[in-house]
Design a protein that fits this description.
The protein has about 280 residues and is mainly α. It folds into two domains: about 140 residues, Voltage-gated potassium channels. Chain C (Four Helix Bundle (Hemerythrin (Met), subunit A), Up-down Bundle); about 100 residues, Helix Hairpins (Orthogonal Bundle). Helix content is about 65%, strand content about 0%. The chain is built from twelve helices and two strands; from the N terminus they run ααααααααααααββ. A two-stranded antiparallel sheet has the order 1-2. Helix 2 crosses helix 4 and helix 3 runs antiparallel to helix 4. The longest helix has about 35 residues. It is flat, with a radius of gyration of 27 Å. The chain starts with a helix and ends in a 15-residue tail after the last strand.
Length: about 280
């Protein structure tokens, strides 16, 4: 019995892990909120430094200072990531989660820049960590709305895929026709060049770097422009219809136990914690 007792981790280590978890992952306590606010400030400052470093005049004068600051922030984020894995109950689950992957990506580009010069520019991805502001400002209901939007996008993915394939087909056909009608002498030097023109025209961007000059080509271009206005509205309508359906299929009521909203219409208990829903 004494030997078994000696194999148990000391209580102080467990307490330290629990307290560290409350600060790093918690948002209901003052230390947790302070930690998140400081973390977001460091993230925004780091993203600003990366963008400023791309300005030649600033890079020439403050480049070494910005690089040292970037390495300091990267080391800080590395230590924070290790501490998160140490104090969380299921480190593998956290490492595979969305925020866990973002935390990992926030520090990797700086290390990659040692091998690939300029790779530190990719560290701007760490600004995604500002998503933690939802926890600080207690905007959990916005997270629920984001869940509804995500469900609508997933439900409409097949329709949007068919729509995208249709657009690709149209642009390939129109680009090939423009290559045949206009020819290399008028800027349409290849079919991919014609497809590029078709995409620019169909999306109503209209860079103007390539323009049809023959009457037949201008007629075809006019048809593509008119078609573009109708095509732009299609994916918007698809997602909107699914968004309305997803919103109607969910109960806008918060669980009294965990605060989660957006439950199924026939739900009597919370799908997250099992608490009975009011009403």
């Amino acid at each position: 019995m004494q030997a078994a007792t000696d194999l148990r981790p000391p209580l102080s280590a467990s307490v330290r892990r629990h307290r560290t978890y409350a600060v790093i992952f918690g948002h209901d306590t003052r230390p947790g909120r302070i930690f998140d606010v400081i973390l977001i400030g460091v993230i925004l400052g780091s993203a600003a430094a990366i963008m400023l470093e791309s300005v030649d005049s600033i890079q020439a004068e403050y480049g070494p200072l910005l690089r040292r600051a970037e390495w300091a922030v990267t080391v800080l984020f590395t230590l924070e990531y290790v501490v998160r894995l140490w104090c969380v109950g299921r480190p593998r689950a956290y490492a595979r989660s969305f925020l866990g992957i973002i935390d990992l990506l926030a520090m990797l580009p700086t290390y990659v820049s040692v091998i690939v010069p300029g790779g530190q520019v990719l560290t701007v991805v760490r600004i995604l960590r500002v998503l933690r502001v939802f926890r600080i400002l207690k905007l959990a209901h916005y997270v629920g709305e984001a869940r509804v939007l995500g469900q609508a996008l997933r439900a409409s993915r097949y329709k949007i895929t068919v729509f995208a394939l249709t657009i690709i087909t149209i642009t390939v056909i129109v680009g090939s026709l423009m290559y045949l009608v206009e020819g290399p002498s008028r800027g349409f030097t290849s079919i991919p060049r014609g497809v590029y023109w078709a995409i620019v025209t169909l999306t109503t961007v209209g860079f103007g770097d390539i323009t049809p000059q023959t009457p037949l080509g201008q007629t075809l271009a006019s048809l593509v422009m008119i078609m573009g206005y109708g095509i732009i509205a299609v994916p918007t309508g698809i997602v909107t219809a699914e968004l309305v359906g997803s919103a109607l299929a969910l109960r806008e009521i918060d669980c009294p136990g965990c605060g989660r909203g957006n439950h199924d219409l026939d739900a009597h208990h919370c799908k997250a914690c099992g608490e009975r829903l009011p009403g």
